[in-house]
Amino acid sequence: MANSLPEAGDRIAKLLARAGVASRREIERMIADGRVALDGKVLDTPAVKLETLRGVTVDGKPVAQAEAARLFAFHKPSGLITAERDPRGRPTIYTALRNALPRGAPRLMPVGRLDFTTEGLLLMTNDGELKRAMELPSSGIPRTYRARAFGDVTQAQLDELMEGVTIEGVRYGRIEADLERSSGRNRWIELTLTEGKNREVRRVLEHLGLQVSRLLRTAYGPFQLADLPRGQAVEIRQSDVERFRKGLKPRTDRK
Hints:
Layout (H helix, E strand, L loop, with lengths): L9 E2 H7 L5 H9 L3 E3 L2 E2 L6 E2 L5 E3 L2 E2 L8 E6 L16 H8 L8 E2 L8 E7 L2 H8 L7 E8 L4 H5 L5 E3 L2 E3 L2 E9 L2 E8 L6 H8 L3 E10 L2 E2 L8 E3 L2 H9 L9
Helix pairs in contact: 1-2
């Protein structure tokens, strides 16, 4: 890019993420695809630094300045895809969110994902930087699940998960797991982990010989599902969001 581009401020990908356009990585791909411009000139690098988003367009449309980070808790039902659209035509979380969010809610992105059949707490934010920080394993944010599973397992076997486990070449880190009530060979297990790898809970329990019939996320960091009705959403208090954000561990994935 020309040397006349600004050198002060924040990188453009960070500003666009804060504005809720997409996550920083997704924005970098958008820049590589020639979808982002500054004062009419298409950018070819995410290294541009700006004080504001004045003059920035995405797909030819001006970008509004970033709002304060907002966070919503959504009780995701089973049978929804955590995506904006599904090639197979299955309903997505946004189908349910149309009626669940208050009027005037900003464009929201999910913090992490829940599988099609997984229920429970799904956090949604308008801030791509907050989203990314909450998803990073290095942030060490605990996620708690309750799983209903069929089969035999002992608390001693679950305690071994504290040391981590390798399944088919994939290493899963420390998991705290506790047996709850049982009925016959059906049992409820509570699990807390910090990595959140794809299908981690199901794969670990299947590795122990259990068949998971229901999986519910009950907490993400300090935010609890509590008694939020299925299919409903509620905004988390701004003071709680800011307190949580200030307590996040520094990012280690990039400058």
